[in-house]
Amino acid sequence: MPLLHRIARKDHAAIAFILDGSACEGRAGDTLLTAILSQADAVRQTEFSGQPRAGFCQMGACQDCWVTLADGERLRACTTPLAAGMSIVTRARLAA
Ligand code: FES
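A: This is the predicted complex of the input protein with FE2/S2 (inorganic) cluster.
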């Protein structure tokens, strides 16, 4: 169940991306954090306890929102704009 429910920018251009292997759609102007939390209830699980995390500061300061792309690149979700074709992996650390 998504944590966020879109109430604005519903008419902005759609941007296709992949989230944990599933095809998803965000909107132009979304950050990765917005795009992910519009589809899911967390952006990652903490390395320490496995508990779900959804970001905290929303401004690039707390480091709570790191996600990984399928190619291994790590990005801060709250400060990275969504781009078409991104393949985001939120569950890699728990699977390892
Ligand atoms: S939510 Fe704090 S750095 Fe992204």
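The mean pLDDT is 91. The pocket of FE2/S2 (inorganic) cluster is lined by residues 55-58, 60-65, 76, 78 (CB under 6 Å).
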